[in-house]
Amino acid sequence: WNMAVQLVEAIPSWRVFIFGGSADRQGEGRSMGIFDRRIGVLDLGEDQKWDAPVPEERGAREKPLGREHTAMCYDSEDSRLFIYGG
To answer: Which parts of the chain sit beneath pLDDT 50?
Structure first.
C-alpha cells in the first residue's frame, strides 16, 4: 500500500523501481501492517524478473527508513534514484 514507483528507461530493458509503503506481514490487514523499507526492481525485458538490490551506502548514510506516501525520481545523467519525503 502507498509505495513509491518509478519507471526507468534502462539498457537493455526498462525497469520499474518500487520502494516503501505499508506491508501486512502478520496477515491482520493493512491497519496492522508495518512500514516497509525494501526496494524491488522489476526488469521488463523478455524474462520479466524481480530483483531486490542493496543500495549503495556512503559514509554514515544507510538504507532509507520505511515509509508511506514517498516521492521518487530518477536522474538519468548520473543514473541515480532519489527518494524524498514520506
So the answer is: none
Cell, residue 46: 523478455
pLDDT at res. 53: 84
- Residue 52 burial (CB < 10 Å; 0-12/13-18/19+)? exposed
Cα 39 to Cα 13, 28, 50, 59, 84: the distances in Å are 18, 23, 10, 20, 14
Q: What is the DSSP letter of 62?
A: -
Report the run of H or E that residue 23 belongs to, with start and end: strand 22-23
The model's pTM is: 0.76
Check residue 43 and give its pLDDT.
95
Burial state string for 59-71 with b = 16 or more CB within 10 A and e = fewer than 16: eeeeeeebbbebe
